[in-house]
Design a protein that fits this description.
alpha+beta; four-stranded mixed sheet
């Protein structure tokens, strides 16, 4: 009898939580979650919920430079918490991170209704007041110990010559009453080293591109415990991104914009992304290792249409190709590099070379 009563109490509490997430104002959701947590033990299949902090900042914003360090220190003390930094075009539309992808940065800022000023925080879909102390541990108190009926896994891998494919698996672990959910799936660069006009030197978890465009992707979760829904999306990879620092963040939300579960993928493999993306042929270079100059052995009857050099982190390097088919390697630091060539007929070649001092 006591077991049945315990299960009934847990079930009612879980139902109350789902209803609260669907209809409660955003600033009350955390409190509703907290009240219901104590009675969720009867739902033994529930899994720990990873929190997601959407951070809206700007590389030209002096207030951001003042408030971000305290927030980052606070964030580092949290467990099971993910972070993604968006850079909207307001208050400064010349922010380099905003300029690169202003459409999607602005779209997701407007999605939460926080466009116009930075810095701003949104935790699990709950908009945090701008006046709140971002450096205080109490910022995260309402989101500790949350559980979810869903488990989420994300994986990214190179696709073709210049694309990245993300695969997200959403597995139902406990009973729920959701018929429709929304998925955010974004690509982030874990650290960008850039001396920005506001004085910040390092920029963390920079949003680069959405796999689902400027909007979340609606999907129907499985109603069967143990069953999964798999979603795959592909985007183009820019050569200016540091390949080894790229990873994906997936956020499963209710239709009321409230997070139910989040996950981060492992970083994109440099070897896989750079070495294996061109499959048509192997480019011969000499001498290898090189010291001051490297020559390319390419059919000179075919004009080179595209030429790229990347370092071991997958970062694009501004290296030019001379008319005699050579590149000046004198100023390159010692190490391993990847070279890619595309000729006018569409043939693609790749190889690696070593620079020695």
């Amino acid at each position: 009898m006591l077991q049945k009563l315990s299960f009934l109490v847990g079930y009612l509490a879980f139902s109350t939580l789902l209803q609260a997430q669907a209809v409660a104002p955003a600033n009350l959701v955390a409190q509703a979650n907290l009240v219901a947590q104590a009675n969720l033990v009867a739902q033994t299949n529930l899994v720990a919920q990873a929190n997601l902090v959407a951070h809206f900042t700007n590389s030209r914003c002096g207030i951001c430079a003042n408030r971000n360090p305290g927030f980052y220190t606070n964030l580092q003390q949290q467990t099971n918490t993910l972070h993604l930094a968006f850079h909207p075009s307001s208050p400064y539309n010349t922010c380099v991170f905003s300029v690169e992808n202003s459409v999607e940065n602005d779209a997701f800022t407007n999605y939460y209704g926080v466009y116009g000023g930075t810095p701003r925080l949104v935790i699990n879909g709950n908009v945090i007041p701008a006046s709140q102390n971002y450096a205080a541990a109490a910022l995260f108190t309402p989101y500790q110990g949350l559980v979810s009926p869903f488990a989420v896994a994300a994986v990214i891998e190179p696709k073709g010559a210049d694309s990245i494919m993300a695969t997200v698996t959403v597995t139902t672990r406990a009973a729920h009453n959701y018929s429709s959910l929304n998925l955010f799936l974004g690509l982030a660069e874990d650290t960008v080293f850039y001396a920005s006009p506001n004085g910040e030197q390092r920029h963390y978890d920079v949003f680069r591109k959405s796999f689902t465009g400027s909007a979340h992707l609606p999907f129907a979760p499985s109603a069967t415990i143990g069953s999964s829904v798999t979603i795959r999306k592909t985007i183009l990879r820019k050569s200016t991104w540091a390949t080894a620092r790229l990873y994906a963040i997936a956020d499963v939300q209710t239709t009321a914009k409230l997070s139910l579960q989040a996950a981060a993928s492992a970083h994109l493999s440099v070897t896989t992304a750079v070495e294996n993306q061109l499959q048509a042929g192997v480019l011969k270079v000499y001498p290898n290792p090189a010291q001051t100059v490297l020559f390319l052995d390419v059919d000179r009857q075919q004009a080179i249409r595209k030429f790229s050099v990347f370092n071991a982190l997958g970062q694009f390097l501004a290296v030019s190709l001379a008319d005699d088919g050579s590149i000046n390697t004198a100023n390159l630091p010692q190490g391993t590099y990847f070279l890619q060539v595309e000729t006018a007929d569409g043939s693609r070649y790749s190889t690696r070379f070593v620079k020695e001092n």
